[in-house]
Inverse folding.
């Protein structure tokens, strides 16, 4: 039995039945990391000793006959843009290469309180800006299914870690598709919850009004277990919703009869690779055969989503990233003439080109004389996009589409063409602009590469997504495939 | 008639004295070792988020209501983006187009009567840290930053350009300070920086309704600086226009030592702050009931109190204005009057001797060792004739120094006034006998000599003789 291939709920049974210990489990995962990490490159840092120490505590609880929580002892990985007390947190940037936060993100505290064992911090595109992890200041993570290809981004390290057996579950963040795209490319389950469902406290901000933390897991059940831990109100985050999160496992029901599913035609139009198109259609047929009502619908403002996103997100980023100036923490350039020179040198040396590009875009969009034409206009279009979804959800319980127009692309294939790179997110960005939940579930393979099915639901309706995804999963076996590394 | 008219508008920043900062729970206490009143949030560390302190909103509403503003039901926070090392995030969370309050006013006294000055808006924002240099800014090898003040809550109050002279500007500041102090939301101490002021000033030909080009004056750290800087600026601008030049729209700083304003940056170099709504904070929706609760809890404000002092205590308008200029002094006055019912006498003592001693010792009235009840009992001793007015002044100084009761001091030092006619008569007889020359003079009609003899009697009794008795007895005997 290869422990590193199991799901969290399977491992939980093994732990409480004392068939394995938490230490054994974590050692198995660290052994797996040792054998495949060189090929994958999922982690920016690993914390073996601390993890094994935590595992020993869980084992002691089990030995004493104490009840342990569903994720107790389970090895999880955290995207390196979430702060971890006493552990370097880089956001994939040179400018924070030496930054050790004196506090943990709320989600990290919640996982810790739930007994989950943090094994390491995963690679990402610098400040979560990118779709491939190629914008990481340190190295590019490789897709476990084909190491010449990208894992998707920006949470590529977290997706690849779960796909490759280097962690059982992980956390990512999703601003325009950064959980769903790598989940699709790596063949794992990924969920971006409703904006406000998960605290952003401790998440290093890219675009505050769009950023949301969510899980990567090997199946839908684990996804529900992770949501149970991370969702809920946090007084430290003013944008966190004041709501009582349900027990998400109650939605793990193998039944979609009567469920009304809309397929926005704009997401199935030209530009979607034929093999992806085919797998999505096949998935829709399956859902229909299981009793769901599937029909085509329209989200008419879809074509404006990408430009809208590339005004709002960079505008917020240009302000969010202003604090990295070398004065208080992080990189400080040497040999500066004066403070302005220090700011300029530090930021020139510390940020990569994509981050600089977005800071410039955002600064421009907010500038006097351009604000109304760009930023304000983008906010108005964002409202129209939201209204598209509101109208669709009057009729449908769920919207379904591809996550990405293509399967994982080759490393280097799009690095010279930012616009092509941005187009990878064309199917995922609207969900962030509307603030609704979105999910990627494995729906097959094209040319040996995984393809993800995107489910989109009403605000705080993660339950409907889980139910449809669970039903789909129970009637397919794609999630059981494992890459040969 | 003056050929030019001056137009001034003030932007005043006031630190609110909430216990914790505006977006985190670090203390707002003044001073402290550098970088000890901080936390990850007010340091703007990566991933941290602001959460609005409700007390700050309450205090802002309180001040706004006292300034007759309308409170917005819907308001929001915006980011003001610019780079400066004293700003942890390189943006300041402020309020841009939807401030919490607008359309207020306050009344000032001018030579020509009461004048109403409009208040355009009042908004909330966070304070910055401060740079610390060894030596001067030009010779220091490096800058240090103290973030203790970063995130301390501020309100900014912007006036309409209704002020027409440096004197009016000072009156406005004094009134604003008094009103805000009364509401209890700030100490308004200019010397600690909890009250700060920038001025927009322009001049225009008398009779013109078009505004002239303005200059913004910064670094006005005292009432004196405000008055001097504005007076200087009026002259500078008029002189420039008279010489056929024009005024450049710019920011200028007041150089206290040289007594001049100096150009800092012109409009062409002005910042583009790239304001946009702070996505980390949600809009503020303010319930009417809350506003009304706050309105009901407002204390009596300076104008109302002043009117009451004239009506209820029969004080002259001037006394009433001075006494009500700070809440503490007005409270002191009322506490005195509660135990000694001659308001004008109390007023004279507070505005005279007490104010003089407080000033000389650079002391606040709240720290004064003479408590209102003690001042009242001193005045009572005087009224009963136990001590003379002259002795009272000596006792008062002793009370100010030691905090002892007047009665105790009088007893300890044996200062009780001698009103026994027999005892004084004996001294009077003695003085008459030993000063025949003066007696002659008085008899010859030289009234002045009487004063000398009174002085001699007082000297012999060490000031304790009842002066009225002494006068009467001397006149009788001569």
């Amino acid at each position: 039995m290869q422990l590193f291939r199991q799901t969290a709920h399977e491992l939980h049974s093994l732990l409480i039945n004392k068939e394995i210990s938490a230490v054994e489990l974590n050692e198995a995962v660290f052994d797996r990391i040792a054998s495949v990490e060189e090929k994958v490159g999922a982690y920016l840092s690993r914390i073996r000793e601390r993890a094994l120490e935590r595992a020993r505590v869980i084992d002691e609880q089990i030995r004493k006959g104490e009840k342990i929580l569903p994720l107790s002892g389970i090895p999880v990985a955290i995207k390196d843009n979430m702060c971890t007390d006493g552990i370097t947190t880089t956001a994939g940037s040179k400018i924070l290469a030496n930054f050790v936060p004196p506090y943990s993100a709320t989600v990290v505290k919640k996982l810790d309180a739930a007994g989950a064992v943090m094994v390491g911090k995963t690679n990402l595109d610098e400040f979560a800006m990118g779709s491939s992890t190629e914008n990481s200041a340190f190295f590019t993570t490789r897709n476990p299914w084909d190491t010449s290809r990208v894992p998707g981004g920006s949470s590529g390290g977290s997706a690849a870690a779960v796909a490759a057996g280097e962690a059982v579950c992980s956390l990512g963040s999703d601003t325009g598709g950064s959980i769903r795209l790598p989940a699709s490319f790596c063949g794992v389950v990924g969920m971006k919850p409703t904006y406000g469902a998960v605290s952003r406290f401790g998440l290093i901000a890219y675009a505050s009004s769009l950023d949301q933390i969510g899980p990567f897991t090997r199946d839908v059940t684990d996804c529900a277990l992770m949501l149970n831990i991370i969702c809920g109100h946090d007084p430290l985050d003013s944008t966190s919703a004041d709501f009582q999160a349900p027990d998400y496992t109650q939605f793990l029901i193998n039944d979609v009869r009567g469920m009304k599913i809309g397929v926005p035609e704009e997401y199935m139009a030209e530009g979607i690779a034929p093999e992806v198109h085919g797998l999505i259609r096949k998935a829709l047929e399956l859902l229909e055969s299981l009793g769901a009502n599937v029909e085509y619908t329209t989200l008419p403002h879809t074509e404006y989503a990408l430009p809208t996103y590339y005004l709002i997100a960079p505008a917020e980023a240009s302000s969010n990233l202003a604090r990295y100036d070398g004065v208080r923490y992080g990189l400080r350039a040497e040999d500066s003439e004066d403070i302005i020179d220090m700011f300029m040198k530090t930021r020139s040396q510390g940020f990569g080109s994509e981050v600089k590009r977005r800071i410039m875009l955002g600064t421009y969009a907010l500038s006097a004389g351009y604000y109304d034409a760009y930023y304000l206009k983008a906010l108005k279009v964002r409202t129209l996009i939201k209204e598209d979804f509101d109208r669709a959800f009057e009729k449908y319980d769920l919207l379904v589409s591809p996550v990405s127009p293509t399967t994982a692309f080759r490393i280097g294939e799009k690095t010279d063409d930012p616009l092509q790179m941005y187009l990878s997110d064309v199917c995922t960005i609207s969900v962030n602009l509307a603030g609704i939940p979105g999910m990627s579930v494995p729906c097959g393979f094209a040319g040996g590469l995984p393809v993800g099915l995107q489910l989109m639901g009403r605000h705080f309706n993660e339950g409907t997504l889980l139910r449809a995804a669970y039903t789909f999963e129970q009637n397919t076996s794609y999630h059981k495939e494992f890459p040969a590394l | 008639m003056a050929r030019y008219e001056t137009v001034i508008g003030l932007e005043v920043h006031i630190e609110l004295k909430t216990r914790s900062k505006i977006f985190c729970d670090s203390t707002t206490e003044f001073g402290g070792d550098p970088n000890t009143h901080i936390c990850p949030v007010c340091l703007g560390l990566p991933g941290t988020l602001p959460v609005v302190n409700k007390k700050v909103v309450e205090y802002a509403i309180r001040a706004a209501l006292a300034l007759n503003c309308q409170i917005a039901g819907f308001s929001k926070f915006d980011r003001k983006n610019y780079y400066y090392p004293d700003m942890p995030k390189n943006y300041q969370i402020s309020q841009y187009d939807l401030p919490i309050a607008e359309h207020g006013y306050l009344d000032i006294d001018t030579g020509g009567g009461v004048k109403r000055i409009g208040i355009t808006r009042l908004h909330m924002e966070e304070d910055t840290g401060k740079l610390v240099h060894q030596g001067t800014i030009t010779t220091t090898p490096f800058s240090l930053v103290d973030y203790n003040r970063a995130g301390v809550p501020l309100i900014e109050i912007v006036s309409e350009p209704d002020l027409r002279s440096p004197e009016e500007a000072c009156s406005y500041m004094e009134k604003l300070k008094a009103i805000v102090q009364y509401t209890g939301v700030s100490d308004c101490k200019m010397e600690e920086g909890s009250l700060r002021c920038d001025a927009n000033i322009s001049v225009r030909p008398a009779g013109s309704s078009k505004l002239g080009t303005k200059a913004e004056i910064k670094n006005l750290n005292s009432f004196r600086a405000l008055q001097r800087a504005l007076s200087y600026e009026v002259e500078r601008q008029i002189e420039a226009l008279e010489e056929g030049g024009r005024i450049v729209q710019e920011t200028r700083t007041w150089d206290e030592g040289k007594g001049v304003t100096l150009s800092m940056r012109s409009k062409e170099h002005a910042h583009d702050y790239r304001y946009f709504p702070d996505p980390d904070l949600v809009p503020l929706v303010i319930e009417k009931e809350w506003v009304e609760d706050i309105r009901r809890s407002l204390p009596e404000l300076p104008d109302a109190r002043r009117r009451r002092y004239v009506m209820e205590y029969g004080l002259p308008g001037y006394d009433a204005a001075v006494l009500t200029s700070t809440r503490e002094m007005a409270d002191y006055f009322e506490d005195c009057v509660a135990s000694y019912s001659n308001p004008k006498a109390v007023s004279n003592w507070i505005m005279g001797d007490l104010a003089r001693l407080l000033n000389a010792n650079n002391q606040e009235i709240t720290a004064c060792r003479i408590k209102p009840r003690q001042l009242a009992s001193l005045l009572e001793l005087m009224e009963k004739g136990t001590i003379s007015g002259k002795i009272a002044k000596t006792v008062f100084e002793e009370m100010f120094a030691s905090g002892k009761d007047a009665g105790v001091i009088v007893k300890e030092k044996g200062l009780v006034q001698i009103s026994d006619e027999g005892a004084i008569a004996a001294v009077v007889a003695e003085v008459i006998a030993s000063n025949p020359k003066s007696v002659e003079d008085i008899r010859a009609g030289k009234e002045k000599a009487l004063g000398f003899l009174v002085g001699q009697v007082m000297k012999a009794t060490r000031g304790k003789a009842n002066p009225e008795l002494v006068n009467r007895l001397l006149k009788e005997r001569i």
